[in-house]
């Protein structure tokens, strides 16, 4: 992350906190862009549109998010809800990407 951003425990002002949150948001956006790049790859690789929605894989991804959240000290239900939304958004994007290749 940005060297000028303080760790949460070192923040003394709301400006420090906001700078940290903004830096994390920028890093998250770069990661989300990479994740959606993988959705483009999946749409390119999957043989048919019916393969886009994979409920067992969705459940696995959300379970992984819960485990990662627990290990990181993040509320598991919050993480699971975020990942559920992210996976659904990714599936919708992948359907669009799959249709573009036709």
How would you describe this protein?
The protein is an all-alpha fold and 102 residues long. The protein has one domain (8-100): Chorismate mutase (Chorismate Mutase Domain, subunit A, Up-down Bundle), CATH 1.20.59.10. The protein is 74% helix and 0% strand. It has three helices and no strands. The chain has helices at residues 14-45, 55-72, 76-100. α2 packs antiparallel against α3. It is elongated, with a radius of gyration of 17 Å. It starts with 13 loop residues before the first helix and ends with a helix.
List keywords for this structure.
single chain; 102 residues; mainly alpha; Chorismate Mutase Domain, subunit A
């Amino acid at each position: 992350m940005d060297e000028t951003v303080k760790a949460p425990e070192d923040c003394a002002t709301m400006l420090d906190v906001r700078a940290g949150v903004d830096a994390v948001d920028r890093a998250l956006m770069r990661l989300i862009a990479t994740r959606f790049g993988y959705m483009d790859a999946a749409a390119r690789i999957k043989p048919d549109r019916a393969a886009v929605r994979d409920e067992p894989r969705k459940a696995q991804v959300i379970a992984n998010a819960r485990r990662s959240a627990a290990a990181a000290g993040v509320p598991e239900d919050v993480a699971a809800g975020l990942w559920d939304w992210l996976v659904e958004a990714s599936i919708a994007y992948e359907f669009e990407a799959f249709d573009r290749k036709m």
